[in-house]
From TrEMBL:
It comes from Raphanus sativus (Radish). The gene is LOC108855804. Residues 183-275 are annotated as: Disordered. GO terms for molecular function: nucleic acid binding. This is Retrovirus-related Pol polyprotein from transposon RE1 isoform X1. Residues 207-228 have a biased composition (Basic and acidic residues). GO terms for biological process: DNA integration.
Amino acid sequence: MCLSKYFAEAGIVHQTSCVGTPQQNGRVERKHRHILNVARSILFQADLPVRFWGESVLTAAYLINRTPTKLLKGKTPYECLFGNPPSYGDIKTFGCLCFAHKARRDKDKFGVRSVKCVFVGYPFAKKGWKLYDLEKKEFFVSRDVVFDEEKFPFAEKKLKDAPIVLPPSVAHCDEEEVRETVIMTERGRSEQPVSGDVSETETSEVSVEKQSETEEQLKQSETEEQLGRGHRKATPSVRLRDYVSYNAQAPPESPDKHNTITGLTSEASADRSGKTHSLYPITDYVCDDFFSDHHQAFLAAVSAGVIPRNYKEAFADERWNKAVKGEVTALELNRTWDVVDLPSGKKAIGSKWVFTIKYNADGSIERYKARLVCCGNHQVEGEDYEETFAPVAKMDTVRTLLEVAAAKNWEVHQMDVHNAFLQGDLEEEVYMRLPPGFHSDDPNKVCRLRKSLYGLKQAPRCWFEKLSDALKRLGFEQSYEDYSLFFFVKGEKSIRVLCYVDDLIIAGNDLELIERFKKRLSETFHMKDLGKAKYFLGIEIARGPLGMYLSQRKYALDIINEAGLLGCKPATTPMEVNHHLLRDKSPLLTNPAKFRRVIGRLVYLTVTRPDLSYSVHVLSQVMHEPREAHWDAAMRVIRYLKGSPGQGIMLKADSDLRIRAYCDSDWASCPRTRRSLSAYMVLLGDSPIAWKTKKQDTVSHSSAEAEYRAMSDALKELTWLKRLLADLGVRHEDPMDLFCDSKSAIYIAANPVFHERTKHVEKDCHSVRDAVKAKLIATRHVRTTEQLADILTKALGSSSFSYLLSKFGVCDLHAPT
């Protein structure tokens, strides 16, 4: 009986998916992805050529059907279909070496008795193994096979045939650099490849000869070359021991084409003193000599530490194993869950371990921390969670609070809440499978959560509500401008508390009051007193007589190191002038996820690096379809970071705390939509506290209209900052200065002139005119060369770029002197 007839008799409506819409058949597509993931894994593990993809897919399906799964309560699909568990005696490693018995068809007693093959799968409806004859290049099935599952013929052949050559030059180097190859490694790691065609004697002779030549070159370079700036010889800081680059220079070309060149070992590239011989060593661009010994110790600790990726790696290390046990103890003492049977109709979510390093106030490693996190992405809205929003501190608020503290000489301390989310009470009914490291003889046992464990969608909200209630009970008021800001004022004494999840910044003008508050808060929650603020959300805070210096030195070095550009030549600007990245048609990237990761990391770097705002803004627009030119542009940004990884902003102590802002636009700058670009830079005194680069929502008909819209965007920020400063105890009675380089926009803001140019402009933009009348702001004209926001709207040349950076408080205290 045909299938359509069966559907008609059974009353089944048969619907097929539309062409090109795999999302309509999601379950099948997910299974396809599962099969292909397994197929790729076994194919790549055996180093088989892609032409064996069919065999790998069939083998993957064979293995999946015989693998127990939690969805089937520990059973295999094979057992559910046939009623009997499968036999695993015939399972062999895909792609391994094997020898098939060859039947005797002659009388030669010394003839070949087996055939060298590769195992490539399980044939259908035959009791044997599918093999590939390496000599005859054909497939066949045999049952008399001897397997060597430790060897993979195609992998060995690939390794033997591969020539040993120097790695390609670092991308984006100038022409004079092409002759040099820079190899990025960690200190202590050396790799000396040896060709399979070269004997041990020949290899050792070549290595000794090359090493002697290198030692002579290094001795000569030590006497001739002066590193760093001036006449000081720069040696790598102990804080940069994980960021060392080595060179491998190719010797004169040999007339023998078959000769191979091995790279220098790390011993030949760097001596015991830690010297590096890259043309552009990282120590030429970052050092810590400017800072006190106390702060240098902190920087050294921040740069250290290797974090495990999973529970298995952590269990092998006694330090992390101790951290896991400590977390388990905290979970049990807090009664985070009850172990129960999973109710019918309920689903349990998974969990994982996340590891990190916590620091003391002096920068030394305080402890290795393990945290159990729920897989909240498996929660279902309406079933096990409702509201999820919880406010966190805005970075503009962080910078503003620190600038006010620097100007008023406030104490700035930091605290951390131990297991903050476990403090929140969970109202919904949520079940979690037993975490890694826990075991129960009953497979149906799960955890009924009582506390808001990390990873749950509602966990941040539960914790913030409990923290807010606790602070209000202590007499604090919550700011309406930033709900994560709380303030307490009693006469001349005051405290401000800024919360970012479980990290708290406490600023106030009375140390005794701050200490009393910290003691009261510790009675309510399990707190960690980190002392004076030094490291907040990856931002390094250094305080001195001049003010507070904020930078992300370690974060920038990690980005450079991950990109493999520690030894590259730095770029003077983050982006080329007059670029055409938004209409580039170069080939698409084969690995767009790598590009997105780089841009995502650069986005957070703009917290203390306004000089990167425009470049990151442009590259963020091509995240959905990155091309090779976009990757090159991203690498240029990292090369720019190489020149100043420790650059940051100075929040000055001698500030008058007056607000002034610069706004600018780039008319019709987007080649795709012809929309303009708006940007503003807000200074509190001479310290930058807020900046933004954003594409306008609509197309502007003139440059004056685009500038007028930019003024409107800046006005919104100024209005908010004025109210925020009032909560910080700083009141502005005088109009705030708003600088613009368009006289037409200033005229429009002052009077309803240029009617033909502005009659179509939305009413919200005319709030600028109302603000001028109300004396909230005062518009000022500034020359284009002095327009600080110009650096946020376009790529500038090196001279203009450096000049504007120096005008708004950006400096590099980590630069070698």
